[in-house]
Amino acid sequence: MMLKSVLKNTAIVTVTLWATHTIAAPQQAPVVIQGALDIETDHMIQQLENVSIKTYGGWKFWQGTYKGYPIVISRTLMGMSNSAAATVLAIEHYRPAAIINQGTSGGHDPQLKVFDIVIGKESENIGAFITPKKALGEGSNSLTWNKSFNVLPKNATPEEESRHLRFQADPVLLAAAVKAKSNYKQGKVVEGVIGSADVWNNELDRIKIFHEQYKTSVEEMETASVAQVASLYNVPFIGIRVLSNNITNNGTYNPATGVACQNYALNVAVNYLATQK
Fold first, then answer.
1. Is residue 17 included in any domain, yes or no?
2. pLDDT at site 147
3. Which domain holds residue 174?
4. How confident is residue 67, by pLDDT bands cut at 50, 70 and 90?
5. Closest Cα partner for 71 from 36, 41, 39, 105?
6. Residue 14: inside a domain, yes or no?
7. In angstroms, how far is the first alpha carbon of the chain from the final one?
8. Beta strands, E only, 49-169
9. Do the domain assignments include residue 1?
10. Each residue of 79-110: pLDDT tens digit?
11. What SS3 state is found at 183?
12. Is 251:232 a contact under the CB 8 Å cutoff?
């Protein structure tokens, strides 16, 4: 509103002028939800409204809304390097409020069954090792390999020091994930450690070592690399994984687990974004 005085017949007349400018409300930053494969992303994509699709290199993104909240679905493709690259693209192009990496996984914990969900309170790279020295002809035994350590340059910057093997979930995202537990009826939901590597482990002795020494609940091929990139950008992150199989207790593969995890991740995203308004 603006006041303006004008002279009329020697009297001062005050005229009120109303401004009609509309100020747009700032848009809420989206949550990026990742899945490596179509069976880990297609259901979420179908739930979105007002969808736009973008492709950057070999990586595809679907931007839309779910229950009125902004969501970006990212199909990262399988593996540590693919998921890391997809995460950089997602952060640079969408400036997300948070990132959720979700999908199927193989069990390490004999107490967990197919359709159980692991909220990744921590995630760890379980593919980084230093092997003992062996002469030619002495063979190789992965059960004797040692966890790799961080080799840092002198006077390392904080960014360089982020080359860790284990990453903590963002506490607000963790709370949002725990809140979603009450709506999940297809199995139990636990907090645990997600192990990531470009290896599909089928050796029960090796899996036992991971479970006992790393405390892993499940294994897959993306979460820890996404966590590392997110930490470099200071973007809140959490991993969520459903057991699609568990050879430690003869739990056979069920493809329907992918949809179950996608629904859970969408609920977590809504819970989180509701706290950001």
1. no
2. 84
3. 27-133+142-275
4. very high
5. 41
6. no
7. 28
8. 49-56, 59-66, 69-75, 98-107, 117-125, 129-130, 146-147, 166-168
9. no
10. 999 999 999 999 999 999 999 999 999 999 99
11. helix
12. no
CA atoms within 13 A on the CB side of 237: 27
Structure tokens at 188: 């139990």
- The three-class DSSP label of residue 205 is helix
Distance CA 257, CA 241 (A): 10
Buried-exposed string 69-98: b where 16+ CB fall within 10 A, e elsewhere: bbbbbbbbbebbebbbbbbbbbbeebebbb
Strand-pairing partners, residue 36, are none
The number of domains in the chain is: 1
pLDDT tens, position by position, 115-167: 999 999 999 999 988 899 999 999 999 999 988 866 555 666 666 555 567 89
In a domain, 166, yes or no: yes
CA distance 88 to 95: 10
CATH number at residue 200: 3.40.50.1580
The pTM of this model reads 0.87
The pLDDT, as a whole number, for residue 149 is 65
